[in-house]
Amino acid sequence: MTASGLGVLIDEGLSFDTDDEAKGDSTVNMSSQEWKGVVERSVALMDMVLKDVLILDAGVSEFEDKVFAGVEEDPELSIHVEDASGVNKPGVLARRLLSLLQTGIPEHVAATKRIVDENGRPSRLVRYWLPAGVLLLSSTTILRILVHRKQEILNWIADLGATMKDFWFNWVVEPTRKVIGTIRHDSNSEIAIMSKDSLKADRESLERMVVDFAVEKPDFATEGGKLTDAQIEDIRAKVKAGDVTPVLRAYEKDLRKPFYGAVRGDLIRSLLIQVQKTKVDLEVAIGGIDSLLKSQELVFGFIGLTPGILVSIGMFQYLRSIAGGRKGRGRHQRAGKSIRVLRNIDRIFSEATPSQNNLLSYKDHGLLISEVHVLRKIAHGLMPGEIEKEFLEDLDDMANVKGIQIQVRALERIRWAYAKWLQ
After folding, report:
1. Angle of CA points 344, 349, 355, to nearest 5°
2. d(CA 276, CA 270)
3. Could you tell me which residues come within 8 angstroms of residue 251 by beta carbon, excluding any fewer than 6 positions away?
4. Assign residue 86 a region: left if phi > 0, alpha if psi is -120 to 50, beta otherwise?
5. What pLDDT was estimated at residue 268?
6. DSSP 383-402
7. How far apart are the first and last CA of the chain?
8. CA–CA dist 390, 335 (Å, integer)
9. Hey, which of 46, 187, 225, 348 has its CA 20 to 30 A from 406?
């Protein structure tokens, strides 16, 4: 009903029937009697709307018919008053308008508040009497528990503080220190799964084993007799490359007579040398993995630091929201409310029944004006100054009665042009 009254006032009040293109000429050419009649009818319209808008028993159509009929039959209109000179007309109209401002509107506001109090949200006493009563009845029990478990509560608080301290130093400060050490190439911060000189020592040991074996058993190394220094260096180079051919030849020969080779000792010796060779190969593979880990040491440092940072940020945001940091959250909530208002406006256009002139009805137009007003208040401050100015222009295009198609296009323009700030 209120929306219908608002639509009637906006569409019919002070309606001089002027087009935007010829507003100046039409206003000048309009006769004095015509615009005086428009002002009189507008004041009478406001009076009738304020009187009947809060009568909830009647329907919208009945309300509109009653308002227009009351305006036509208003006894204070010029057409119903016999005053040829028209001297008293401005005074009568001024007194009526003053009465509306001083009495009609305040009484309407008070009556609206009474209706809202009777039919709107209950008072806080009605909403919270049950939990307040339960809290009051259980207050003695709660106090008794707090007194009897005072030491336990203090211990819980102390443990909580110690846990927070350990978390901060062990999961934030220490990983950060390690990351900084990695960036500076600190030797103490290097990742390693094998000692630095382990591979070198085992490889040198393997070289000595193979060289000694080849010197003692030159038949397996060369076809000649005693080994020369050049041949020994060649064997060393091959061992560094992973070639232990003399040992393998002896091993192959002793496998033909394993018992004899075991008694003589060559088979066991070749087996032990191969064990050392396997150990060196394994350390070479581990060294490759070790090099890979060192190349990604900074990545692993940040991975270790990430959980502590994320938990700290989450706790900081939570405490900030509790401590009153509602600005960002309020901004997000306002953007969410603006989306709901746009949804309501879309429903108004979808369910509207246009008139023959392709215009909204009084009720739909009143609802649209109300939603636009709410959207204007919500969106204030969400956008930069120039963007907000353009946004208000588009809101005016959507609210003005220019045809439903034009208003729907304005709504679509608002949705895609300002989606960045209304999400």
Report:
1. 145
2. 10
3. 267, 270, 271, 274
4. left
5. 78
6. S-HHHHHHHHHHHHHHHS-S
7. 32
8. 17
9. 46
Cα–Cα distance, 359 to 367 (Å, whole number): 14
Closest to 51 (Cα-Cα) out of 95, 98, 91, 111: 111
Provide the residue type at 270 as one letter.
S
Tokens of 388: 């907000």
Name the least confident of 137-141, 188-192, 217-221, 329-333.
188-192
| Residue range 172-221, pLDDT digits in tens | 888 788 777 766 666 555 555 556 567 778 778 888 888 887 777 776 76
Q: Which residues of 298-307 are buried (b: 16+ CB within 10 A; e: fewer)?
A: eeebeeebee
pLDDT tens track for 232-278:
788 788 887 878 777 777 777 777 777 666 666 677 777 788 888 88
Residue written as token pair 């222009």 = 393
- In DSSP notation, 236-284 reads HHHHHTT--HHHHHHHHHHHHSHHHHHHHTHHHHHHHHHHHHHHHHHHH
Let me know: does 393 contact 328? Beta carbons within 8 Å.
Answer: no
Distance CA(416)–CA(413), nearest Å, equals 6
AA letter at 85:
S
Tokens of residue 184, six digits: 């500076």
Which contacts (CB < 8 Å, 24+ apart) does range 262-266 have? 266/217
The torsion of the CA quartet 316, 321, 322, 326, rounded to 10 degrees, works out to 150
- Three-class secondary structure of residue 188 per DSSP: helix
Helices 124-137 and 139-148: crossing angle in degrees, nearest 10, is 40
Q: Map out the domains of the chain as residue ranges.
A: 1-15+32-120, 125-184, 190-308
Task: Give 154-176 as a DSSP string.
Answer: HHHHHHHHHHHHHHHIIIIIHHH
Per-residue confidence (pLDDT) for residue 50, from 0 to 100: 82
Query: Exposed, middle or buried: residue 265 (CB in 10 Å: 0-12, 13-18, 19+)?
Result: exposed
Residue 20 is predicted with a pLDDT of 47
This prediction has a pTM of 0.54
Mean pLDDT of the chain: 78
Sign of CA dihedral 194, 196, 198, 200: positive
CA dist 96 to 40, 68, 129, 257, 298, Å? 10, 18, 47, 132, 82
The answer to whether residues 384 and 415 touch, using CB atoms and an 8 Å cutoff, is no
